[in-house]
């Protein structure tokens, strides 16, 4: 009797031990994945040599022109094969990228990362410092705000692909019909919102269901600098003067119900843009291209204006925009860096990008007479690039994102979002958000507000 | 889990047999080994895809990996945090309430549908069966996207109904309706599935019982109450357990609806969504594993209690 029981137990114990060993091995894998290569020492000449030698690269992007740019690259450098993968847009891609980095394999050589998320990958030591290949010399090619977004001290963690200086898109048809002036200040904007909604309760000055990618640039424009990061010391103040200024202004639209409660990028949103429910879009300079492609019914109706400001000045901020970075996991970092250099600084590549409606980060393109003279029919022949480029020159300096911004943005709907749903004071929502952000930062080992 | 009590029982039987000769024991042991040999392909896969991830999650839950400071062993600290975490219990309360209200409604509807089809008083029962089952064949994500469109109070069906009725009568995405809206989707998806479980159990009832009932003069509801319901009690217990597990694991529906009801469906709306967001948005893999384990244990305990109660009734 006892023997039989004991054997079963022994077997069970053995199975358990075997499983535990397997588990340990797995744990070992992920722990062993962390060590990363040293920052490479090299020169632009090394990159040219790598291009000559050739090899295979994987490139993750959701840029519409990604495939076309890679094709143009392979035509120029036939020894190199670039596999373009759309691993999802923004957060979806970051999730996959984080997993691949943590797993120690499966990450691409080059990946698209938005400016706001870049610091997070820098922090986890996942990105290659490109200054080793002399790519720091490319600084002059880019606008100051995009360059500062990809650099930390002397390190260069990516090259800017595009930029999104904020502007105001407005539906001229609605503005004319309701005798509205293009607002120069936010006070004008609020007044226009009141007038429009009073005249036609079905119409709204804009949509905003709560979106951190939208609120933060507006805080930036209002002079708010809620995040300061110095190494592992982080300061968060979502009630600083500028942040409050934005919240108090936006409250005037939110609380009386002047904002349409339609989430950005939803089907409803596209419909609202095309059927005249919404009179303006506060957005980045990349939006005109998307609008033209996605809302054909809006042809001839939309115009571009500078973003309203608080004091009538031209100050604006960056909304979105991405860089491409070389992931440290890359087996051929020199080739990856060479591809990246071509991708975001060569004439051939940026031309393909622009043909697909992108808005550049390179000053040469931003100031080229040809670019500025474009008069798209969709926008009634307006020289929209003049307005957009003007905005790119008036981006307020000094903004920093959190080193864990992807997480912070993910809890924005839980906190500030509640204020949006209840049409109540945004400041209360911002305070709740601050609390969550501080708790998370502290639990992750940062010194937050200490 | 079931091997130990079984082995113990076998042990008792042998003890009842008093002095077992050694030769017999050896023969038994040989038989044991042969049995195990046959199971190794299964056992290998089972350990690899089932036991290993469980143990790995358990292992993960004992550590804390910080963005600054790296990995460190923290013992049961994650469990202490989870038990005091309002976000977790808020989500738990929501799925528990969901379970108490949605599951009975769904099972009752499924039961009525199964009895109706089994009653032989309907024409085209095959058609009814397929139509009611059809939603289950639609992939959950597609179904939820479709419902999300119907629910939209700006342009969807809801908007049209609101226009027709005047005002904003229906607000499926409002904070106080969102759980009911999700319950409606889940009910729509799974009534057919549960109906099939009930219906197939009804089909296994021997016709002699009905004949005997008819001779005894039982009709209509009496047959349902005295024969059909007792006979499918096992199926009801199974369907209930599946539904309990499904409720506690609620994820697809709220997660797909989230972009449409952004601020209402929070990142900790259900425990599974919380675990998902902890690990994928917050990189808190360790804490996420802790939440998943606690939820798994609670689900197992409740499912076990239901099973015990269900089978005890069967014994009676």
Q: What is the string of SSEs of chain B from the N terminus onward?
A: HHEEHHHHHHHHHHHH
Report the span from N to C terminus of chain A: 65 Å
Query: If classified by CATH, what would the architecture of the largest domain in chain A be?
Result: 3-Layer(aba) Sandwich
Unreliable residue stretches of chain B = 1-23
Main β-sheet description of chain A: 5 strands, mixed
CATH C-level name of the largest domain in chain B: Mainly Alpha
Biggest interchain interface, per-side counts: A-B, 56 and 49 residues
CATH superfamily of the largest domain in chain B: MetI-like
Query: For this entry, what is the oligomeric state of its chains?
Result: heterodimer
Q: Mean of residue pLDDT of chain A?
A: 88
Summed over residues and divided by their number, the pLDDT of chain B gives a mean of 86
Number of helices of chain B: 14
Using the 3D structure, state the CATH architecture of the largest domain in chain B. Orthogonal Bundle
CATH class of the largest domain in chain A: Alpha Beta
What fold name goes in the CATH topology slot of the largest domain in chain A? D-Maltodextrin-Binding Protein, domain 2
Task: Give the fraction of residues assigned to helices of chain B.
Answer: over 70%
> Beta fraction of the residues of chain A?
5-15%
Q: CATH fold name of the largest domain in chain B, please?
A: MetI-like fold
* Percentage of β-strand residues of chain B: under 5%
Largest sheet data of chain B: 2 strands, antiparallel
Structural class of chain A: alpha/beta
Short note summarizing the structure:
The complex is a heterodimer of chains A (450) and B (316). Chain A is an alpha/beta fold and 450 residues long. Helix content of chain A is 48%, strand content 13%.
């Amino acid at each position: 009797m006892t023997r039989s029981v004991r054997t079963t137990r022994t077997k069970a114990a053995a199975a358990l031990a075997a499983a535990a060993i397997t588990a340990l091995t797995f744990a070992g894998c992920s722990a062993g994945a962390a060590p990363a290569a040293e920052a490479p020492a090299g020169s632009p000449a090394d990159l040219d040599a790598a291009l000559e030698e050739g090899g295979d690269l994987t490139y993750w992007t959701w840029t519409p022109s990604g495939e076309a740019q890679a094709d143009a690259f392979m035509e120029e450098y036939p020894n190199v094969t670039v596999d373009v993968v759309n691993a999802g847009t923004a957060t979806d891609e970051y999730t996959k990228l984080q997993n691949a980095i943590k797993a120690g394999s499966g990450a691409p050589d080059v990946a698209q990362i938005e400016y706001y998320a870049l610091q997070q990958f820098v922090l986890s030591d996942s990105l290659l410092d490109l200054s080793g290949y002399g790519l720091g010399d490319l600084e002059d090619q880019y606008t100051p705000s995009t360059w500062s977004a990809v650099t930390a001290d002397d390190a260069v963690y990516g090259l800017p692909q595009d930029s999104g200086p904020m502007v105001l898109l407005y539906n001229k048809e609605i503005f004319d019909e309701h005798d509205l002036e293009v607002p120069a200040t936010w006070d004008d904007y609020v007044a226009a919102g009141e007038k429009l909604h009073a005249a036609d309760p079905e119409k709204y000055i804009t949509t905003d269901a709560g979106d951190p990618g939208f609120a933060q640039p507006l805080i930036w424009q209002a002079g708010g600098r809620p995040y300061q990061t110095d190494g592992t010391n982080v300061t968060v103040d979502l009630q600083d003067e500028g942040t409050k200024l934005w919240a108090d202004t936006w409250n005037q639209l939110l609380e009386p119900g002047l904002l349409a409660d339609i989430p950005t990028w939803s089907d409803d949103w596209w419909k609202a843009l095309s059927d005249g429910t919404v009179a303006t879009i506060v957005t980045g300079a990349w939006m005109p291209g998307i609008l033209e492609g996605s809302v054909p019914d809006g042809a001839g109706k939309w115009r571009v204006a500078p973003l309203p400001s608080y004091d009538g000045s031209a100050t604006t901020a960056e909304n979105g925009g991405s860089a491409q970075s070389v992931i440290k996991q890359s087996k051929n970092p020199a080739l990856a860096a060479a591809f990246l250099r071509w991708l975001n600084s060569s004439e051939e590549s940026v031309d393909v990008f622009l043909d697909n409606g992108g808005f550049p980060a390179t000053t040469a393109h931003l100031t080229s007479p040809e670019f500025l003279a474009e008069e798209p029919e969709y926008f009634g022949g307006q020289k929209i690039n003049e307005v957009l480029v003007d905005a790119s020159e008036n981006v307020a300096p000094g903004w920093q994102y959190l080193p864990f911004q992807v997480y912070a943005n993910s809890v924005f709907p839980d906190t500030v979002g509640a204020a949006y749903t209840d049409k109540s004071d945004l400041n209360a929502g911002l305070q709740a958000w601050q609390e969550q952000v501080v708790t998370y930062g502290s639990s992750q080992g940062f010194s937050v507000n200490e | 889990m079931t091997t130990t009590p079984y082995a113990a029982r076998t042990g008792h039987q042998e003890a009842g047999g008093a002095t077992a000769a050694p030769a017999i024991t050896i023969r038994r042991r040989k038989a044991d080994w042969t049995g195990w040999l046959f199971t190794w392909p299964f056992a290998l896969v089972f350990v690899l895809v089932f036991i290993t991830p469980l143990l790995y999650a358990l292992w993960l839950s004992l550590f804390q990996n910080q963005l600054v400071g790296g990995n460190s062993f923290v013992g049961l600290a994650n469990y202490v945090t989870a038990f005091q975490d309002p976000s977790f219990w808020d989500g738990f309360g929501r799925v528990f309430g969901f379970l108490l209200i949605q599951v009975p409604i769904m099972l009752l509807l499924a039961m009525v549908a199964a009895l109706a089809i089994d009653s032989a008083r309907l024409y085209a029962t095959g058609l009814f069966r397929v139509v009611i089952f059809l939603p289950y064949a639609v992939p959950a994500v597609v179904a939820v996207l479709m419902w999300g469109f119907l629910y939209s109070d700006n342009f969807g069906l809801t908007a049209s109904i609101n226009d027709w009725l005047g005002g904003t009568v229906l607000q499926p995405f409002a904070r106080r309706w969102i759980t009911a809206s999700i319950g409606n989707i889940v009910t729509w998806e799974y009534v057919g599935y549960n109906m099939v479980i009930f219906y197939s159990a009804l089909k296994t009832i021997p016709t002699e019982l009905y004949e005997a009932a008819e001779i005894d003069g039982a009709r209509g509801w009496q047959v349902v109450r005295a024969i059909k319901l007792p006979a499918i009690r096992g199926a009801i217990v199974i369907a209930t357990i599946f539904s309990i597990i499904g409720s506690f694991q609620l994820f697809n529906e709220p997660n797909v609806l989230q972009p449409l009801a952004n601020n209402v469906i929070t990142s900790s709306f259900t425990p599974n969504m919380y675990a998902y967001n902890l690990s994928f948005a917050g990189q808190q893999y360790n804490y996420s594993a802790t939440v998943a384990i606690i939820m798994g244990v609670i689900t197992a305990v409740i499912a076990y209690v239901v099973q015990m109660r269900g089978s005890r009734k069967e014994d009676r």
